[in-house]
Amino acid sequence: MSPHGKQGAIRVTEAVFRAEGLSKTYPGVRANDDIGFSVRPGEIHALLGENGAGKSTLVKTIYGLVRPDAGAMWLGGAPYAPADPRAARSAGVAMVFQHFSLFDAMTVAENVALGMESPPPRGALAARIAEVSAAYGLPLNPRRRIAHLSAGERQRVEIIRCLLQNPRLLIMDEPTSVLTPQEGEILFATLRQLAAHGTAILYISHKLEEIRAHCDRATILRQGRVVASVDPREATAAKLASLMVGGTLRAVDRSGRSRGPAVLNVTGLSAPAPSAEGTTLREIELSLHAGEVLGIGGVAGNGQQELLSALSGEIRSPRGTVVLSGHDLSAAGPEARRSAGLLAAPEDRLGHAAVPGMSLADNTLLTGATRQKLARNGMVDRAAATAYAERVIASFDVRTPGPRTAARALSGGNLQKFVIGREVLGRPTVLVVNQPTWGVDAGAAASIRQALLDLARGGAGIIVISQDLDELLELSDRFAALNAGRLSPAVETEGLTLERIGLMLGGAHGMEVANVA
Ligand SMILES: Nc1ncnc2c1ncn2[C@@H]1O[C@H](COP(=O)(O)OP(=O)(O)OP(=O)(O)O)[C@@H](O)[C@H]1O
Predict the structure, then answer these.
(1) Domains and CATH numbers, the chain
(2) What residue ranges are annotated as transmembrane (predicted)?
(3) Tens digits of per-residue pLDDT, 385-413?
């Protein structure tokens, strides 16, 4: 079929879902522009595109969250125009979001019941959950509380909630970005099984290799338009990336760095869990040198956020535990640490790293007020904040109308580029980042990684905390693993295999994977 579906080469009855001419304009942005494509029964169909290409807008339209300005959709051959997600669900469309919408204090079964229009009695529901989870190889105990589940298990709850509706079309928005490689494999086994039963799956991801390995078809969006429809198994990752960006990607350049003196020493750092669901940090030891990238891997929830907080100053620690270039910062708060040159970019960009309702210019003040001299004598220097935001936008190719745009109006990946850029341009002595390319497209991820390496080349020490092992291997000089709040000794990355890393990560959630294998 042609990208725009106008020729109608595919018979309507063959497609579970079909769209023609879908368009949606936001102020200043044509988010979706005359989109046409179709998804067949039993197909795992990838939706690919750079940050801001319009993928989320498209799937939100299909799920009844966004009203298109123009265009039409069909589901199972019948005209389809959902007024809201409830209408989408009752027509047979289900969606698993990037951010889970589960209540921590409630059990699996209670959460599933909340999402249903008319939930069956509790006993019957628990039995249905057990049945579906057994049928699809998704082990889950209906009586467990969400707070005690790993990211992969939480996602299973969302998937099971969808499966109980017997969807014809299941939409998944970047489902593997929070999963370990093993959990990702389990997910794909489930999707395959679903597809074998005729469900169509629309799958958004930035992981090109994953799409090549598991998807049957890929529709590629660029600037709101469909630019190609390909069989991803027959295209190289480089080909897919170049279709997305309309050019070729540069490989990351690691050259020109040399290891200088130690800039950060962490010694015997222990800290109690900041919340009931948090992780206790136990006796963390690390030393970071100027010009060096230290990669820290681990399954989500093993102390990544807590370690970043203990380094950024949101969690204080006993004297002598966090020392930057000979200065003991253990008792210093975030502002004092930033002034001293220890900067950090947390994982949660909307809410923690940036305030959604504030403009990008105002968001520079969160971490740059003192260090960038954006406020003097307690007075905000608006012109300086705007200029700094403009510099970040230009240097990091943040796609946005300008510094006055609210953070929440940016697509996820573009906000991530802004948050990382804001710290990189802050000339840190040490920069700590958590999941720096989470939700970021291949082109932008490469430029963020290059910016981190360039910063190291200039003499900064960088700590990259990430769940993306390929990213850690690409960036890091040394690698350490976080497991239940403990950090392994760092080893040289050169020659390190994925198997060895798997062993280093070991333990935490290994049981659950072993049960399924
Ligand atoms: N509610 C909104 N108000 C204004 N602009 C919006 C809104 N939602 C999306 N946009 C803009 O529409 C464009 C498409 O965004 P969309 O979120 O669909 O992209 P995406 O391909 O899903 O990106 P990402 O991979 O970064 O999540 C972007 O330029 C974005 O800034």
Answers:
(1) 17-245 (3.40.50.300), 261-355+427-506 (3.40.50.300)
(2) none
(3) 999 999 999 999 999 999 999 999 998 88
